[in-house]
């Protein structure tokens, strides 16, 4: 039975109120995070003051240059708010956080990297692609942790530039390439041995809406034989018979190496190996 017009009328302003409340909480969290970075750098400056005879600028760069990196990130976010007319995830802040550089975001990159078991799956000789990478932190962190080469692609140029600033800070430009481009237009010059597709087979901004089969076949065409696809579902896919039927069709192109529930059971993670065409 459908809701009465009166109930629907009440739900709409309540939903809008929740969105405003979330936006305010995220803004406050971002401010607290910025304050935390200030204290981190201030503490390091005090250490430098007491240990001037042993500490030089180069050895302290990882902390002491954080303020400039964060100023660059804030500039990108300000330009996004002013100029970007498409959908911005996480209230205009980076969807991904990166703890090693104290970058504020919704989901922790390092925690996800370990939760998905990527340290055991990605090898130094791999060439990795992260589809719909947001800031590209998962690709960046994979290169940082394993020594692999990694590419990331996302439609949002401001998030990509944030990732590029972080790549330069970590001096990984020779191993990491991040590109602002729709996935449907991406034409890689090489094949990949590892591909990450984390809830990107359709997007909330509706810039990418294709059949799951078409998404996976496009990935298949970019992969080396035996390459690994780490595929994460959307929450709406869990329990969806149409989603599982589409995956079954892909058994002619991929072999399954594992499946498990993630994010408190709201998403599913699949490990899939590319079969020869």
- According to CATH, what is the topology of the largest domain? Rossmann fold
Note the overall shape: globular
Hey, roughly how much beta strand do the residues contain? 15-25%
Radius of gyration (CA) equals 21 Å
The count of DSSP E runs of length 2 or more, i.e. the number of strands, is: 9
User: What pattern of helices and strands is seen along the backbone?
Assistant: HHHEEHHEHEHEEHEHEE
The CATH superfamily of the largest domain bears the name: Vaccinia Virus protein VP39
Low-confidence stretches: none
Structural class by secondary-structure content: alpha/beta
Distance between the termini: 49 Å
Helix content: 40-55%
Total separate domains: 2
The CATH top-level class label of the largest domain: Alpha Beta
Number of helices: 9
Major β-sheet annotation: 7 strands, mixed
Q: Tell me the CATH architecture of the largest domain.
A: 3-Layer(aba) Sandwich
3D architecture notes:
This protein is an alpha/beta fold and 277 residues long. It folds into two domains: 5-97; 108-274, Vaccinia Virus protein VP39 (Rossmann fold), CATH 3.40.50. The protein contains nine helices and nine strands. It has helices at residues 5-50, 61-64, 66-83, 109-115, 118-121, 137-146, 157-169, 212-220, 241-249, and strands at 96-97, 107-108, 127-131, 149-154, 176-180, 192-198, 223-232, 254-262, 267-274. β8 (254-262) and β9 (267-274) form a beta hairpin. α3 (66-83) packs antiparallel against α7 (157-169).
